[in-house]
Amino acid sequence: MSAKSGAGTYAPFASSDYRLLWSGTCLYFLAFVISMVAQAVIAYDLTGKNSAVGLVALCSGISLTIGSPIGGVLADRVDKRRLLVLSQLAIAALFVIVGTLMLSDLLTVALLAGMALLINLCSCVIMPARQAWSPATLPPEQAGDGAALQALAVTLMGLIGPFIGGLIIAVPFLGLGGAYLTLAGFMLVTVLLVLRTRAASPRPAAQAKPLADLQLGLIHVFTQPRLAVLMLSFYGVILAGSSYAVLLPGFIEDRLGRDASDVTWLMTMSGLGGLVSTGLVSLLPSSRQTTTLLAVGGMIMGVGLALVGGASSFGIAMAFMLVVGIGMGMVQLLNTALIMREAEPQYYGRVMSLVMLGWGINGVAALGLGLLADGIGAGRTLAVMGAVAVMIAAAMWAALRGLGARGEPTVRAQSTLSS
């Protein structure tokens, strides 16, 4: 795929329907990220154990792991508008329940874990449905740019979500319970945006059996070597690098003597680092070294995690979290956009569901990481995760280099999404 001009990349925003869909994606994923941060803080506050945070993340991961492939098939088969309205209303209701229980001092880890499972089960259909609906709001020649911009929305909200979440949680009259009620309001706005979208929700002319659809999606991804490597490396980096959120509440309380809720400041630094990396990538000249940048990003993230694990003060940990965010921002910005550019439009829903599956795998591993942190310490666990992230990034670079650069977008084509 060749490089495109900035105007060409942004062309989908000329469509009012696409703008509504994209805005809803931003708001939904912002709420998703903030809820993940908030539930980690709540779980640690309730028990004082990393394993409790891991248990809640495990429930999130199980629902995403099992539900994401099914959600992708549904997104490519059924009415997207109805699917989005119902699933987003359900999440809004669940956020209200969690917030009310928190404010009433009735929330337990078991209830939080159950709510996390249900919330993420509903989430399994949202991003695939949004990605599958995107081409219907655009001319055919803009479908690839539309998919990449949707992926960009997910990346940016993942970067700034912890910062915004920290601000919401820090409001004295809101706290964690009020934060969940605020997130419910976000979800209601996403419903209104969907209802205002006029583009028809596409349906396939002929539908195979659901399992056959799922099989076709997997075949599409894993019979294309570049797409397969990008997807598998995304899983690996997410597993090794993004699970740190489970460990941070206990790490800063036990190792650094800070309240677990101060984790939002560390996540804020990570988000700022992600925004820095987005800006740096946008300043690079046109180049076909996208895979090298991906690998460098993964290595920066891994080294940053190891340094955080060895930090002796909260200020030093915040500085190293900036490094983690820079690396994570590079990985998420480039890898997710590359995946969607490599995929064919008719498979967007299923491909996005496989991307979401990565976050599910991340959650499934969280309990094991929490138990490991309770055994050897969160600092040592972070160091191990960082080393694994570096090795995965190096393996990804070697594999993609071996496959050659055929069809690889230039850095400029990707960076225009973030400028």
Describe the structure.
This protein is mainly alpha-helical. The protein has one domain: Growth Hormone, Chain: A (Up-down Bundle). Helix content is 80%, strand content 0%. The chain has helices at 6-10, 16-47, 50-77, 80-103, 109-123, 126-133, 143-170, 175-196, 210-222, 225-242, 244-254, 263-283, 290-309, 314-342, 348-376, 378-403, 411-415. Helix 12 (263-283) packs across helix 14. The longest helix has 32 residues, at 16-47. It is globular and about 55 Å long.
What distinguishing features does this structure have?
single chain, 419 residues, mainly alpha, Growth Hormone, Chain: A, 80% helix, globular, disordered C terminus
Termini separation comes to 20 Å
SSE string, helices as H and strands as E: HHHHHHHHHHHHHHHHH
Instruction: Report the β-strand fraction as a percent range.
Output: under 5%
| Strand elements, count | 0
Rg, please?
A: 20 Å
Calculate the mean pLDDT score and round it.
Answer: 81
Helix/strand/pairing class, anyone? mainly alpha
By CATH, the topology is Growth Hormone, Chain: A
Q: Helix segment count? A: 17
* CATH uppermost class: Mainly Alpha
CATH H-level homologous superfamily name? MFS general substrate transporter like domains
Shape: globular
Low-confidence stretches: 1-7, 406-419
